[in-house]
Write a structure and sequence with these properties.
globular, single chain, 12 helices, about 40% helix, Rossmann fold, 4-stranded parallel beta sheet, two-stranded parallel ribbon, alpha/beta, about 250 residues
Length: about 250
């Protein structure tokens, strides 16, 4: 197994790390040489990628199978450049690549709650907008297991899997779950939309902020839908947010 990133990163036992940049496909040659399958993730820089060049380089190196981590927004927010159009272009490249392909479209990640780690550690408080709007956030561990299945087992070629958690959960409920995980109550403070927007603009482009707020505050029926695909692939129900919080409680203590 080979993992690539721009800078050195820890990798599991038995894996190797190679420094490479997806925006420079020629530099991927060593990583692809002799590989059989590729897990492709745009790392938030999809607009900078040439997916056809990446996939062509992968095929030349011997890759026969690709699993793409895309986004639910391809289907639910096609008008959004950040959440829909960019990933749609990468999906289209995967489909026409000639490789056996599987596309994963997760909704919101449970791990987005890491953004609350510092205020929980410092003040045992969480501030977020739309405190009682529920979304079926997905545990990244479930995404990883589905990806591993698609990479290593037959029967997933040509499939598009929408990945969600097992139930709707609200920001208020997620704050409570973190409190349960650390054994201390966590106070929830509901932000106004404008307060949340101002905070998000410090680290996100304005169009991304607007689409994100729309998803959080006025999710479509499709964004609130609980998908059966995790259970279909793994043979078990997806993990609840409380499971994620319990495993990651140390980050909030």
């Amino acid at each position: 197994m080979t993992a690539i990133s721009r800078t050195p990163s820890p990798v599991p036992a038995g894996a190797r790390h190679l420094p490479a940049d997806l925006t420079e496909p020629a530099g991927l040659r060593e990583a692809f040489d002799g590989a059989g399958a590729l897990f492709l993730h745009d790392t938030g820089a999809g607009h900078l990628l040439d997916p056809d060049a990446i996939l062509g380089m992968a095929e030349a190196g011997g890759v026969a199978r690709v699993v793409l981590l895309s986004s639910q927004g391809v289907a639910t927010r096609p008008e959004s450049a950040s959440h829909g159009a960019t990933m749609r272009a990468i999906e289209d490249a995967v489909r026409r690549s000639g490789l056996d392909w599987t596309i994963l479209r997760p909704g919101g990640f449970a791990s987005n709650a890491y953004a609350w780690a510092e205020p929980v550690r410092a003040r045992r408080a969480v501030a977020a907008p739309f405190g009682d709007v529920g979304l079926p956030v997905v545990d990244p561990a479930d995404i990883a297991e589905v990806a591993a299945a698609a990479l290593t087992r037959d029967g997933h070629t040509g499939q598009v899997y929408e990945l969600t958690g097992p139930a709707l959960s609200t920001p208020r409920q997620r704050a409570e779950a973190i409190g349960d995980a650390i054994g201390e109550p966590v106070r929830f403070v509901e932000q106004t939309r404008e307060e949340a927007r101002a905070q998000m603009l410090a680290f996100m482009p304005a169009p991304v902020v607007e689409t994100t707020l729309a998803i959080l505050g006025e999710p479509t029926p499709a964004e609130r839908r609980i998908s059966p695909d995790v259970e279909r692939v793994l043979g078990r129900a997806p993990r609840a947010f409380a499971d994620w919080a319990a495993r990651n409680a140390a980050a909030f203590r």
